[in-house]
Design brief:
With 479 residues, the protein is α/β, with parallel strands linked by helices. It is built from 15 helices and 16 strands.
């Protein structure tokens, strides 16, 4: 078994909109996450034609408003992360805490002071922050007044936000990512681009326009960050789902090739290679558009060329199967995407297909394509945990899942992949992004809270807590 680097970045990951709560505190403005109702019908509601970006507490529950109260309890939580031995903690900065509406000229100092405290608390325990600048929570005002990332003005607003946080924290934070799962807009543009059916999500031109604006914004911020501090490492972040053709039918294999290019690689190709890939015309033609149909400026392409990222952060939970011939008898869904059911894989309680070897494949595919350092910034098993009367949570199923994926990581390292680190998702239980539930738990730390917001919010260590602590202590030698 190959050994991980001595400075391998073990840790865990959360996002502000799923963990912090305190949605009206500290001068924070509303974000798009604040108006997304909880429950399994969350995306049916969001995708309805009359969804109006308003909070209706008489009709829906909004778990994100309180979440796990990380806003008030981050010191307690970070202390637990330190006890596990975290080298890094990946979290995001809530844009609307810093610019409540998003288009202000002056930032909200109270919001900045909150992240001063969070960052300093991490450093107190020698935990390096890994910060996602925008993680599924742009200010709501930028959607209702500017129609989200379809509007080029958001490039300016995002640059201003990024300049404020990079300038303030560069001496304390080395690792950054510009946009969380930027490619997710292929299937669900609401959280990354601010688009739903009622404001243009059905028109793929809007998605491509938003991507273009985000590519330019990301590239400018990478260049800006390097000008502020040349030691900063600023990465892209994509949702990666290893994909297979269902059978040896060349039609399915070709469909799988196109699917991988368009979903797994398109955004990475632009952000890492610095140009739109050769298959862009074919990809856009499927939606009846061309790159020349988008609102662009000549300088955009130079920005994209010169603002390439330093590393690739990505999430990996499962693999998918392409089957355009309908040879499969069943379908599978997971992390907002779908395909045919793979008969060789088991699935989680939520139907996500568990594929550790797929992670080794993903690492090899990404490193072979880009030859840039890779960082697995999300991976984990969402499951219903049972807590005993004496607060024990025996989550061996989570340990098994993570062990198999860490083994796959080690195999990829032995293949020659340059892997920077690993931050399992939801290192403490948080509100699910896909359903707004607490019952879908990922963490090493149990939070006493149910789907309706009832509970003490007390934190309890799961069996996986001590297991992961030992994994970090032995740098992955004992798993």
């Amino acid at each position: 078994m190959a050994k991980f680097k001595k400075d391998f970045l073990w840790g865990g990951a959360t996002a502000a909109n799923q963990a912090e709560g305190g949605y009206k505190e500290g001068g924070r403005g509303l974000s798009i996450a604040d108006v997304l109702p909880g429950g399994k019908q969350r995306f049916d509601i969001i995708n309805s034609e009359d969804f109006n970006w308003e909070i209706d507490e008489d009709k829906y529950k909004y778990p994100n408003h309180v979440a796990i109260d990380h806003y008030h309890r981050f010191k307690e939580d970070i202390k637990l992360f330190a006890e596990m031995g975290f080298k890094v903690y990946r979290f995001s900065i809530s844009w609307s805490r810093i610019f409540p509406k998003g288009d202000e000229l002056t930032p909200n100092e109270e919001g900045l002071k909150f992240y001063d405290q969070m960052i300093d608390e991490c450093l107190k325990y020698d935990i390096e922050p890994v910060i996602t600048i925008s993680h599924y929570e742009m200010p709501l005002y930028l959607v209702t007044e500017y129609n989200g990332w379809t509007n080029r003005k958001l490039i300016e607003f995002y640059e201003r936000f990024s300049k404020v946080v990079l300038t303030r924290y560069h001496s304390k934070v080395k690792y950054w990512m510009t946009f969380n799962e930027i490619n997710s807009a292929e299937h669900f543009p609401v959280m990354s681009q601010g688009l739903v059916n009622s404001n243009g999500a059905k028109d793929k031109k809007n998605v491509f326009q938003s991507w273009h604006n985000q590519f330019v914004a990301s590239a400018r911020v990478v260049k800006m960050g390097h000008e502020i501090d040349e030691s900063l490492q600023i990465g892209a972040m994509i949702l990666y789902a290893t994909s297979y053709g269902y059978n040896s039918d060349p039609v399915n294999q070709m469909a799988n090739l196109e699917s991988e290019q368009e979903f797994n690689f398109f955004c990475g190709d632009v952000q890492v290679r610095g140009a739109y890939p050769a298959y862009t015309d074919r990809y856009m033609a499927k939606s009846g558009i061309k790159l020349s149909d988008l609102e662009t400026q000549p300088s955009d392409f130079e920005d994209i060329k010169t603002g390439t990222v330093d590393y690739i952060g990505f999430s990996y939970y499962m693999s998918m199967v392409a089957d355009v011939t309908n040879a499969a008898s069943e379908s599978a869904q997971g992390n907002f995407i779908g395909g045919a059911k793979n008969p060789f894989l088991k699935s989680s309680e939520w139907g996500w297909q568990i594929d550790p070897i797929g992670l080794r494949i993903a690492l090899n595919e990404l490193y072979g394509r880009y030859e840039k350092p890779l960082f697995i910034v999300e991976n984990g098993l969402g499951a219903k945990d049972e807590i005993t009367s004496d607060h024990q949570i025996n989550d061996d199923y989570r340990i098994d899942y993570l062990r198999e994926h860490i083994n796959a990581m080690a195999d990829a390292v032995s293949d020659g992949v340059d892997l920077m680190g690993y931050t399992p998702w939801g290192c403490i239980d948080i509100v699910s992004a896909s359903t707004g539930e607490m019952s879908k738990r990922y963490g090493f730390i149990y939070v006493d809270l149910d789907n309706d917001g009832n509970g003490s919010m007390d934190r309890y260590k799961k069996k996986s807590f001590d297991w992961y602590k030992n994994v970090i202590k032995t740098n992955g030698e004992e798993i």
